[in-house]
What we know:
two-stranded antiparallel sheet
Amino acid sequence: MKMIYTVEDRPKFGQVIVFAFQQLLAIMAATIAVPMIIGNGMSIAAALFGAGVGTLVYVLFTKAKSPVFLGSSFAFLGSMGAAFAGAVSAQAGFAGLILGAVFAGLVYVVIALLVKFVGVGWLNKLMPPVVIGPTVAIIGLSLAGNAVGDLQTSNVKGGATLIAVLCGLVTLITVTVCSTYGKKMARLIPFIIGILAGFATAAIFTAIGYAADVDALKIADFSKLTALVADGVTVKTFISVPDFTFVEAFKGVKDIDGAYIASIAVAYIPVALVVFAEHVADHKNISSIIERDLLDKPGLHRTLLGDGVGSMVGAFFGGCPNTTYGESVACVAITRNASVVTIITTACMAIVISFLSPVIAFLSSIPSCVMGGVCMALYGFIAVSGLKMLQPVDLNNNRNLFVASTILIAGIGGLALNFGKVTITSIATALILGILVNTILSGKKEDKTEE
C-alpha cells in the first residue's frame, strides 16, 4: 500500500494538527472506555494524559520509526479490577494499579533483552504468515460486536435504535466515500468528515426531538456542554487538572503489604506474557501496511521497551497499562498517512486536551452510534489487513488450512480461558492454538487437497 506520507515525512503545521485530531478521534472511545468500565474514581482525562505520555515514551524508544499510538489496554481489565478488589482502601487500589503496570512493563523489558541478544529469527519461525495473518484478522473481527452495539446506541435514554443506526451509517458511508473518491485532503481526513456528518445528522434529529417533545429522536446528549455554558465558562471550569493516579496512590502506599503485592504480580504478569503476542501481531500488521519490517528496524526489542516503559509511565498518571492500538494502525492504513510527526502531535494533543474541560465535554457528547460507524470501518480494516497477510500462503496445503481455520474459529468463537484471576483472551488463546497446530504439523511439507 503506497503511503501519501511516509514515516519520516513532515506534513505542514496546519495539516498535521488536523491529522492528529483525527488519530485522537480514532483512539478516543477505546482509551476512555477502560477507566469508565473499571470505575472506582478513575479519571477519563488522566487516562487520556497517560496515553499521550506513554506514546511519547514509545516514540522515543523506537527512534520515531513506528507510527502507532498507545492507548488503554482492555487486556488488563481483569487485573485492574483485581487490584481494587484486593485492596483494603481505594488509595491502595490506585497504588496497586501502578505496581501492576510496573510488573507488566518489566515482563516486556525482560523479553526485550532476550530478543536483543537472541534475535527475532525464532519468532518468525514460530509465527509465520499463516499464524499471524488470521490472528490479526480476529483482532478486528472480535471487535465487530462492539462496533455494531455502538451503532445501535444513542447517547440519550429512549433514543430509537433505527435513528441511531441511520446516524451511524451516514458516518460510515461518508468515511468510505471520502477515502475512496475524495481528493488528497479528503482522503487524509475521512474520519473527521464522517464524524462531523454523523454528528450533524444526530444533532438535527435531536433538535427535532426536543422541539416536538419526542424522546425517540433525541440521539445526542449535550448535557455536559450545556452545563458548562449554564455555569459560565470561567478559567476554573475551562482548565481542570486531571485526577492523576499517583496522587491517590501515594496516599495508599501505607496500606499495601507483601500478600497484596504478590496478588498484583499474579494478576498482571501472566496477562503481560499474553499481550506480548498481540504486540507482535500489531507490529507485523503495521509493518505490512507501511512495507517496512519494524521487528528488524528499529527492532522488536525497541518496540517492546517502548510499549513496556510507556505502560509504566502511562499508568503512573492514568492508571491504565497501555498497548499499541489496532484503531491507530487502521487509521494509518485507511488514510495512508504513516508520518510519526502525526503520532507525536496526537500524543501532545491528548495531553493538552486532558486539561480542557469543554473539549472533553464535546468529545464525550459525540453519539455512540456515530463512533460505531467509524469503528465499523476501523475494525473491518484490521480484519482485512490480516487476511491480506494470507495472500502468499498456499491454503490448498492441509497444514496451512488447519492452522488458519483453528485460529479463526477459536478467535471468532470467543475461546477465552480463565485461571483464577488470570484471563487469557480469545485472541491470545487462538494465537497459542495456532502456534501449537503449526508446530505439530511442521514436519508435513506438501499435502494438497484434491481439486
